[in-house]
Amino acid sequence: MGGVRPEDFLRDQFPAGYWHLIPATLRTAYKAAQELANSDPILQIESAVDNRGRLISWATDLGFKRLIESGKLPFDYAWRPFVMPTGRYLQIRLSHSVLTISQVANPRRQPRSVRFRENGCVNNQPFFDFPDFATEQDVIGLPHLLLIHGHQELHFAHLTVPHPEHAKGFRYRSGNLMKIPHLVETSEPAVENTDADLDDLISLKEEIEKWRRDNDS
């Protein structure tokens, strides 16, 4: 372990061939949230306008739930309770990790530190090349990936591997998925995997599977 690049792991878990579904789903969700707000006077009062992000969040969850249920995304999902019993959040279950979705104002920063997300980021400590955590190599949970997107306006969306230390942002962040046509033509160089890279990735996934068996996860 430790030799797997966060980018390689993310692309293994959420292959780039499915990335084009993200901007379309987000655009639909933002549009639906705006149309709902425009249709109901209750949602136009100042306090509701200040919390428009909740409508966007619910619409986004619905969009990804439908993608999974329709088979367009080959993943599973679960509704997980927050640490404090204030509701549930959508957890997308990939083959060897989990993905959650958050709105952020600044695409270079992690969302505000919420306990379930904070705990998930800590799970990333043993999996990648984190010199700060060189002595902490035991698998303690599934790796946590994060899809972030624009707050009130949909200017960006990124798939990320959060750094275990919240203030350090991301160990890897994709290009702006809202500009996928440009990315396909010019952008990110293809990821080249050596035999050693693939061996490290297989080894990491075997460690995750062992943790799952040991923890009935």
Keywords:
alpha+beta, 217 residues, 6-stranded mixed β-sheet
Structural account:
By secondary structure, the protein is of the alpha+beta class. It contains 7 helices and 6 strands; from the N terminus they run ααααβββαβββαα. The chain has helices at residues 6-13, 21-39, 46-50, 52-69, 115-122, 180-186, 195-215, and strands at residues 76-81, 88-93, 98-104, 144-150, 157-162, 170-173. β2 (88-93) and β3 (98-104) form a beta hairpin. The longest helix is centred in the C-terminal third of the chain and has 21 residues, at 195-215. Mean pLDDT is 81; it is low at 130-137 and 182-190.
Strand content: 15-25%
Question: How are the strands of the biggest sheet laid out side by side?
Answer: 1-2-3-4-5-6
Residue stretches low in confidence (pLDDT < 50, at least 5 long) are 130-137, 182-190
- The computed structural class is alpha+beta
Helix tally equals 7
Helix content: 25-40%
Distance between the termini: 20 Å
**Mean pLDDT value:** 81
Instruction: Please provide the ordered H/E string of secondary-structure elements.
Output: HHHHEEEHEEEHH
Question: In summary, what is this structure?
Answer:
Helices cover 40% and strands 17% of the residues. It has 217 residues and is an alpha+beta fold.
Furnish the topology, listing elements before pairings.
Blueprint: H1 6-13, H2 21-39, H3 46-50, H4 52-69, E1 76-81, E2 88-93, E3 98-104, H5 115-122, E4 144-150, E5 157-162, E6 170-173, H6 180-186, H7 195-215
